[in-house]
TrEMBL record:
Protein's UniProt keywords contain Signal: yes
Name listed for the protein in its UniProt record: Tripartite-type tricarboxylate transporter receptor subunit TctC
Signal peptide residues on this chain, from the entry's feature table: 1-25
Domain of life: Bacteria
Originating species: Jezberella montanilacus
Sequence similarity: Belongs to the UPF0065 (bug) family.
Family matches, as CDD domains: PBP2_Bug27
Keywords, in A-Z order: Receptor, Signal
Length: 324
């Protein structure tokens, strides 16, 4: 009889302890939510984060506060979210370094797959190979062949070490056996300025920074990375169609939270953000930033992250790439 009473009490305690969690999930959200951008204010990640936050706030009927925590190639912000409680009030708009950092930096203070809930991939920005309009090279083959004939190779700009354009250059070197030297800058704008001035032979960048110069005829676009043309510049050939497959490298953003985020929260956020991405005005705002909306399920985003980590680990090892 005593054992039966003790067992009943134990079951009652377990049931009582479970109630707050269940009610919490049902009542979420009941206060303001924090979205972190791991980059400085005014950049494309910051803007994309605010676009989603503004629209999602209306759906959740709670304010979403955007905070900027740049530094260490997004590792500072990532570590903060990895160590946050999975209560549905702290999220991060990760970018391409989310999957390149494990290869570039080795051991991190968090596990990119185990310490995050990957909610939805939001947008991606295709990368373009650009040259000044007065360059003698009018197509990719001419450019790459000439780089091999130059003992010192060609200098090609990117917005920084360890960025997607940096790795796109390494992919092209590996696949095409080219001789391209990586010249990192602190952002796209100064790099594009040096492309214009002829201080580097070419650049690899998202379209938004060089677009005014492309439209004015001062910069020539040789190709978009990947197997398919971009709707942003549909007349520009893809690397794939030019005979350089498996060059699909993008700058991309996606929303993550801490690990063990309740499934109902994940499902709601995923559904709401997919609805937001389907809105024509949102699509137009991202196109103006040189981005394409992605969307999809949480498992699809997780699979993408896993595959991307493996891809970059393989390339970084083969090319002996260093982040600094």
């Amino acid at each position: 009889m005593k054992k039966l009473i003790l067992k009943s009490i134990s079951l009652l305690v377990v049931a009582i302890m479970a109630v707050p969690v269940q009610v919490h999930a049902q009542d979420w959200p009941n206060k303001s939510i924090r979205f972190i951008s791991p980059f400085a204010p005014g950049g494309s990640n910051d803007i994309a984060t605010r676009v989603i936050a503004e629209k999602l706030s209306q759906k959740l009927v709670q304010p979403i506060v955007v905070e900027n925590k740049p530094g260490a190639n997004t590792r500072i912000a990532s570590d903060l979210i990895a160590k946050s409680d999975p209560d549905g009030y702290n999220f991060l708009m990760v970018a391409a370094p989310h999957t390149t950092n494990p290869a570039l930096y080795g051991k991190l203070p968090y596990d990119t797959l185990q310490d995050f809930t990957h909610i939805v991939q939001v947008v991606r920005a295709p990368l373009f190979l650009i040259v000044p309009a007065n360059s003698p090279y009018t197509n990719v083959k001419q450019f790459l062949d000439a780089s091999v004939k130059q003992e010192i190779g060609f200098n090609v700009s990117s917005p920084g070490n360890g960025t997607a354009p940096h790795l796109a250059l390494e992919v092209l070197n590996y696949i095409a056996k080219a001789n391209l030297n990586h010249i990192p800058y602190k952002g796209d704008a100064p790099a594009v300025t040096d492309v214009l001035g002829g201080r580097v032979e070419a650049g690899i960048h998202p379209i938004v920074a060089p677009l005014p110069q492309i439209q004015s005829g001062r910069i020539r676009v040789l190709a978009v990375f990947g197997d398919h043309r971009s709707g942003l510049l549909p007349d520009v050939p893809s690397m794939g169609e030019l005979g350089y497959p498996d060059t699909g490298v993008y700058t991309w953003f996606g929303l993550v939270g801490p690990a063990k985020l309740p499934a109902d929260m994940v499902n709601r956020l995923n559904r709401d953000i997919n609805d937001i991405l389907a809105q024509p005005e949102v699509t137009a705002r991202f196109v103006a930033l040189g981005m394409e909306t992605v969307g999809g399920t949480s498992p699809k985003f997780t699979d993408f992250v896993r595959a991307d980590i493996d891809k970059w680990k393989d390339l970084v090892t083969k090319r002996n790439i260093r982040p600094d």
